Amino acid sequence: MSIRLRAVLAFACVVACACAWAAPNKAPAVTLTAPTKGSSFAAPANITISANASDQDGIVTKVEFYQGTTLVGTRTTLPYSMVWTNVAGGTYSLTATATDNLGASKTSSAVSITVSGPKLLIASPANGATVYGGSAVVTGTFFGNANSTVLIDNGNTTRLAALSSNTYSATVPIYNGTNALRVVASRRDKSSDQASVVITGNTNPLLVFTAPTTAVFDAPANFTSSVDALSPAGSISKVDFYRNGTLLGSANSPPYQVSWSNVAAGSYSMSATATDNNGRTGTVSLPITINGPNSPPVVSLTLPTNGAAFTAPANISLTANASDSDGSITLVEFLKNGIVLGTTNVSPYASIWTNVPAGSYALTARATDNRSGVTTSAPVQVTVSPPNNPPTVALTSPATGTTYVALASIAMAANAADSDGTVTKVDFYQGTTLVGTATTAPYSATWSSVAAGSYTLTAKATDNLGATATSTPVTITVTPNSPPTVTLTAPVSGASYYAPATVKLAATATDSDGSVTKVDFYQGSSLIGTATAAPYAFTWSNVAAGSYSLTAKATDNVGGTSTSAAVTILVNATNFAIVGPADNATINSELITVRGTVQAPSNSGVTVNGVVAAIDGNGNFYANNVPLINGTNTITATLTTPEGQVTTQAITVSSTGPAPIQVIASPTEGLAPLAVTFSVSAQAGITIQKVEVDADGNGNVDQTLLTLDWSTVVTYTGAGSVFAIIKVTDTAGTVYSQAIPIVIMSQARLDQNLRAVWSGMSNALVAGDKTKAMQNLDASAQQRYGPVFDVLLPNMPQIIGSFSDLSSVSLSDDFGEYAVNRMINGENRIFFIYFGRNGDGVWRLGSM
Question: How far is CA 138 from the centre of its chain?
Fold first, then answer.
C-alpha cells in the first residue's frame, strides 16, 4: 500500500471517528408498569409503583415517581419500584420520569387510579391513646394539591400543618384529661374533608413529702416518711420509698408511707417514686441528717488585734471567725471584760463598739452552735488613749461675695494645720456636697461646670487620727447663661431611605447672649458629625438599614447647650442579588435570561448589561435575551432608585456559542392583555419534529406545533408573572426545554406608579425642595424645567394647589399620557403630562 493511500485512509478514519463522537444523545425510554390504569384501592392504601426504564446509548441513572407534579419517590437502581404508603381517598395521576447519564429525561404516560374511602386520614396519635407532655404531633395523609390547607385544632387553638407531598404534620397543645383533636383539609376548589380522634392528656405523677416535718434528728432516730401522690388523668398504682437509692418499702394505696427505725448518724437522701396505671413515674427527694454526739464550736476574735491602740472617743470594729464541725453557728457574742457588747447570727460575724472612752479592755468572742454548745475565744487586750486635738482650717479662695458666670470653673484653696499630728486631707464642700479633695499642701481644687445659683463653700480638714475641723463658710454667686436654641430642619420626621443611605442633616442655631461655637448631630446617643459654622449641616453616609432617632445639639461660647426635638427616620434594607445563572456557569447559548431578587423603593429600575429588566410584584426581576459573546462574559445587574442611588451586582459566565435550539419570546413584559409571540429556530443539521408550549408553566401542554414556521402567539390576560415552558423535540428524539419568564403588568399598578412620580415632584415643589423635585424628571426635562422652577418656586404652593387631579389619557408599556386642569384668568386650561420609562428602568416625567 502506498504512503499516499495510507494517508487518505487515516484521514477518513479521523473524520468517521469525529462524526461518531458528535452523535446526539438519545433520551431514555420509560413505562409505568404498576399500578395499571383504572386500578382502585381502599384508604388507607399502600400502593406499589413500578416502572421499566432503559437507555439505548447509555445508562439510566434514576427513575422518579410523581403524583401529578409532586415527587413521591426516587429509585437509582433496578428494580425501579417503591411503595406509596397511607394514601387517602381520591383520584390520582401517576407518572415515572427516567433520566440518563447525560441528563436527558423522558416521562411515561400518566396512569389514573382511584383510592376509595376517607380523603383525610390521621395516622398518629391513635384514637383513645394516652399522651404525656404538653403537646402531641399529629400526622397523616390527605387528598389534594400542595396549595391545599390543613388545619388541626384541639378545641381551643388551631395550628397550620406543614405539608409534604400528600402528608401533613403539626404539633398542637394538649391538656390533662380528654382532648378532641380535629383535622380539616381545605382545597382551592372550596372542597374540604375532616377527621378527628379523642386522646387523653396526662403528666407524670405528682407527689410531695408530708412527713417528716423536720429533716434533722439525733441518733438513733425513728420516724415515718409519708407522701401525697396523684396522677392528673389516671391513678396511682404504687409508691416506692428509697434510702440512698435502696428500696425501703412500697405502698400500693393511701396512705403512702413507710417507717424507718434505729437510724444511725449520717446524711441520707430519701426519695419516693410514684408509678401510675400507665407505667409513668414521678420522683421527689428529701435530704435527712442524723446527728451524733455534739462537738463544741470553734471561735477566735480576729479584730481588733492583741495590743491594738485607739483614741477616745473610739469606734472599734469587732470581727470573729466561728465554725462548727457537726452543725452550724446560731449566735456569736462580743464581750468586754465579760460584759456583752453586741451579738450577731450572720456570717461574717461583726459588730462595732462605739464611743469607747479611754482605758484598757479585755475583749472576747463567744460562739453558740445549733445544739447549744458554747465556746469562748482567747482574750485580746486593747488600749484607748485620751482624745485627739482637731486640726485648724480656713478657706482662702474664693473670697465671699465673688461673682461668676455659668457654666463656671471655680478655683478653691485653703490653709490647714494640726497641733498634735499631721493633716491627711482637705475636702472642699458646696453645702453638704463634696466637690474636691487635696491630700498635700498647698490644699486646692477646681469646681467645674458650675450652674447658675448662690452657693456656700467650706473646707474640711482631717488629721492623722481622724479628727476633723470645718472652715467658716464663704458665699458666692454664679449668674445664669442663656443657652442657645437649635432646630433640626432636615431630614423631616418620618423620612424613608434605602440602605446604604446618604442622609443630609441640617440645623439652625442661635444664642441670645453669646455665640454658637458648634452644632453636634447625634443618632440616639452616638455622635455622627459636627459643624462649627453656619450653615450647620452634615452628610451621614453609608447608613445601614434600621430606624434612627436624630437630634442636633448646639453649644455656646461658655459651654451652654441645647438639644433639638428628635426626628425619626427609617432606612429600609435593599435586597438586590442575581440568583440565576450561577456565577462561573457555562452557558450553551448566545442569549441568556438573567433573574434575581430586588427589594427597593417603588419605581426603581433594573438593567442587565443595558437590557431593561421586568420587575414583578413579588420582589423578582427578569432580563430576557441578554446577549453573550463566545467565551468569558461579565454580567452586571444595576439597580437604580428614583433618587438616583445605584447598586450593582456582577457575575461571570462562559458562552459556548449559539444554542442548538433557540427560543425567542417577544415581548416578555407589558400591560395586560399581552400578546407574546414564541418563535423557535434550529442550527443547521438539526430538524425539529415538534414544539410543545406550556404557556403558564403548570405542567400541562397548551399547544403542540408539528409544522413550520414553528411559532405561535399566546395572549396573557391576567396580571402577574409566569414561566412559559417551551419543549422542542428533534427528529432524533432529543428534547430541548427552555423556561421563559413573562411579566404581565396591570393598568392599575402602572397608573399608581406614575401618579406617585407626579405627587413626588409636586410635593417637593410645594416644600421648596427643587433638588428632590428634579429627581422625578428625565434629563431633558430637567434642562427644560429647571430654570422655570427657579423663577416660580416661591409661588409653587399656590400653583400646585390650583391643579386638578391627574386624569389618565393613555398607557402603554413604556409611555403614559395624563391631563390636568387649571383655571387661569377665569379660563379652564388643560395641560398634558407625559411620562416615559428611561434606559435605567425608572419611570420619570418627560414633558408637561
Answer: 29
Residues of the chain by 3-state class (helix, strand, coil), percent to 5: 10, 60, 35
Burial class (CB in 10 A: 0-12, 13-18, 19+), 829: exposed
Q: Which value, to the nearest 10 degrees, does the dihedral of the CA atoms of residues 506, 508, 514, 517 take?
A: 0
Q: What percent of the chain has pLDDT over 70?
A: 97
pLDDT tens sequence across 207-262 = 999 999 888 888 888 989 999 999 887 889 999 999 999 999 999 999 999 998 98
Q: How confident is the model at residue 457 (pLDDT cuts 50, 70, 90)?
A: very high
pLDDT-derived band at 593, boundaries 50, 70, 90: very high
| CB neighbour list of residue 836: distance below 8 Å, 6 or more residues apart | 778, 814, 815, 816, 843, 844, 846
Angle at 45 between CA 42 and CA 51, to 5 degrees: 115
CA distance 330 to 482: 64
Give the CA diameter of the chain. Answer: 140
Neighbours of 52 (CB within 10 A): 17
Residue 85 to residue 792: CA distance in whole angstroms: 77
Which residues lie closer than 8 Å to 792 by C-beta, 6 or more apart?
799
Architecture label for domain 120-202: Sandwich (2.60)
Q: Which fold has domain 206-291?
A: Immunoglobulin-like (2.60.40)
Cβ burial of 149 (10 Å; 0-12, 13-18, 19+) is middle
User: Distances in Å between the alpha carbon of 354 and those of 313, 339, 680?
Assistant: 8, 15, 107
pLDDT of 22 reads 53
The helix (run of H) or strand (run of E) holding residue 171 is strand 167-173
Hey, what CATH topology would domain 747-847 get? Nuclear Transport Factor 2; Chain: A, (3.10.450)
Q: Is the pLDDT of residue 157 over 60?
A: yes
Lowest mean pLDDT among 13-27, 328-342, 690-704, 754-768: 13-27
The three cell numbers of residue 796 are 409653587
Per-residue model confidence as pLDDT tens digits over 368-383: 998 889 999 999 999 9
Q: Please give the CATH number for the structural domain made up of 29-116.
A: 2.60.40.10
- Quote the pTM value: 0.42
Task: Provide the pLDDT for residue 11.
Answer: 41
Q: Go through the chain and tell me how many residues it has.
A: 848
**d(C-alpha 154, C-alpha 172), whole Å:** 7
Arithmetic mean of pLDDT, 74-81 = 94
Residue written as cell 426504564? 53
pLDDT for 14 equals 38
| CA angle centred on 813, ends 639 and 723, rounded to 5° | 70
Please identify, in words, the CATH class of the domain defined by 660-745: mainly beta
C-alpha cell at 61: 441513572
Residue whose cell numbers read 410531695: 208
Which residue type sits at 46? Answer: N
Main-chain dihedrals φ then ψ at residue 337, nearest 5 degrees: 50, 40
pLDDT at 805 > cutoff 70: yes
Question: Domain 298-385, CATH 3.20.20.370 — does that match?
Answer: no
Asked whether 294 and 339 are in contact (CB, 8 A), the reply is: no
